[in-house]
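@channel sequence for tomorrow's demo:
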Amino acid sequence: MPATPSNDSLKTGALDPRYIAIDLTYRCGFGCPFCFVKNNGLRSERKTELSLRRLKTFVDSLVGKSRHFYLTGGEPLIRQDLSALVAHIKKNGHSVLITTNAWLLDRARAVSLAKSGADEIVISLHGLPQAHDKTVSTSGAFYRAAKAVSLLRMASKNGRPSVIIWCTINAANHARLHELYLCLKKLKPDIIAFNHLEFVSAKDIEKTGAILGKKLNIRSSESLLRGLDSSALRGQILKIKAELDPTVKFYPDLPLKDVKKWYSGEALKRKTSFCAGQWGALWLSPGGEILSCQPLGLGFGSVKNRRWKDVYNGPAYASFRKVLLKAGGFLPVCSRCGRVPHTD
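structure tokens (generated this afternoon):
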């Protein structure tokens, strides 16, 4: 368990993040109901997004140690310069993970990403064919994603990029999760990751706003729970875990007794750590704003005309970190966050 940050870690210039998340775009042709971009009304246009030149300059400024880059969106494959950016990041000695719905990943782009040196590619697949297509509001999406796994397998060299299938547990798939696991296993990904549905309640949004002293641009997403039977889900999780498949991961890996609490909105055991992502990770918006994270979406300043260190270690972000620690390390809206806080 990481120690609580010291007062020294709040001083200007003290923090040097190892994890760098970049939202390359908020554009996406899918309509996933549990997407933070959609739920929080995030938007970006091509003309407002950081250019490849600016992104390379940002990467070049992150010298001093090897870092882990997380390229996401929206749909990052909408950016035609994605492979060039990955190659530049790799040239600087960092690792790269990309998340994608795979709709735009044809053979040429699979080869291009493999050649660029991408380490991991995470493909979203949220249900059996009909359920997945309905969830993302795009006909044929399941088979495009399944084909993408195969294309990346053929393009990979020395096991890179590794392929992870990311499945968000939701009302449409929870009762057939074991059947979905068997289906995904046939695609032979390196990892099958089941992510417990992340949602925020109106009460938690109100409480968080009071703590921060501002109105949050977050919408309640409790409606996503409609039709989700936690007892049925627990049974499906047990069946999957009985397979003893080392490629299967759950985020978070909840004790079975907590599954009902997670999906009912009941209070969970309070986390005894803190959101280490605010001390060890930097999240960048498409337009260059440094964010707390995409789900919370607080902005602390742009890197367009300032050094990232001046924003990341600046007074606005430092004040937020102090409030976060005073609140116990997590805000009320963080109670259903499935991310594992990064620690060095």
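heads up for whoever presents: Strands lie at 19-23, 68-72, 95-100, 120-124, 162-168, 191-195, 248-251, 281-284, 289-291, 299-302.
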